[in-house]
Design goal:
By secondary structure, the chain is an alpha/beta fold. About 25% of the residues lie in helices and about 35% in strands.
């Protein structure tokens, strides 16, 4: 039986396939700390931290950061970078469906659509674990695709962009029956070698997320259209959900 995509996609290919569409993590972290009132020296968990793009800048700002990811390959890259930059982050190789530390964190960050990998029941388990792992009054930030665009049929697109290592083809298809978006990335490098990957995530509406978050012991405080706090509209680039544990 083939392994699920989230167990295979996060390897040495990832930086080439996804790096070109990633934004400056230092800038994103600056926006996050403006958007979410995280106390100085707070305990922060980056859930689905990958190679530490946000966890390392957060640590440099004085937060006590735990980075959780299923991919040991991504965590190896994160450890190597943190070592070079002399930054301390606790790196944990664990499935987000199982990671749980009761009352441990002031904030939980789930960035770059790192939520929605699984079926509804398992995705809800992730949120339940987050709710239990946050301290009372702790904050969850979910950075997701905008479901309204997909539900309206505006999410499907295909484009080819020139990147430093070659030509990158991006294709996204949204299945309105299942509420899942499937994306394919194919890079044709300058040396003619092609590498590719495909993944699909569940895209939730505001109403679906609100119900799930409340069942997890949290309540939505605000929804924005980007990490800089832009209004959330049907055409917004992202869906940034901020919730708090009661």
């Amino acid at each position: 039986m083939p392994r699920p995509w989230y167990e295979t996609i996060f390897d040495e290919r990832y930086p080439e396939l996804f790096g070109p569409i990633e934004r400056d993590p230092e800038e994103e972290v600056a926006r996050i700390v403006d958007l979410v009132p995280i106390p100085a020296g707070a305990f922060v968990v980056d859930l689905g931290c990958g190679r530490g793009r946000h966890a390392i800048p957060l640590s440099r700002r004085g937060f006590r950061v735990t980075g959780v990811d299923l991919s040991e390959k991504m965590l190896r890259l994160a450890r190597e970078r943190a070592g070079r930059e002399k930054v301390y982050v606790e790196w944990v190789c664990e499935d987000m469906r199982e990671f749980l530390r009761p009352d441990a964190f002031d904030a939980c960050l789930s960035l770059f659509t790192s939520f929605g990998y699984f079926g509804d029941e398992e995705n809800e388990k992730v949120l339940r674990n987050v709710g239990k792992s946050l301290k009372p009054g702790g904050t969850l930030l979910l950075d997701l695709r905008n479901a309204q665009k997909g539900l309206a049929g505006e999410e499907d697109h295909e484009a080819t962009v020139t990147v430093p290592s070659g030509q990158l083809r991006l294709c996204v298809r949204f299945d309105r029956a299942t509420g899942r978006a499937r994306a394919e990335h194919e890079l044709t490098r300058a040396d003619g070698i092609r590498i590719s990957s495909a993944f699909d995530v569940r895209i939730y509406s505001e109403e679906e997320l609100e119900a799930m978050i409340e069942r997890a012991g949290m309540r939505i405080r605000s929804i924005h259209g980007s990490l800089d706090g832009a209004p959330f509209t049907r055409g917004a680039e992202r869906m940034v959900v901020i919730a708090r544990r009661g």
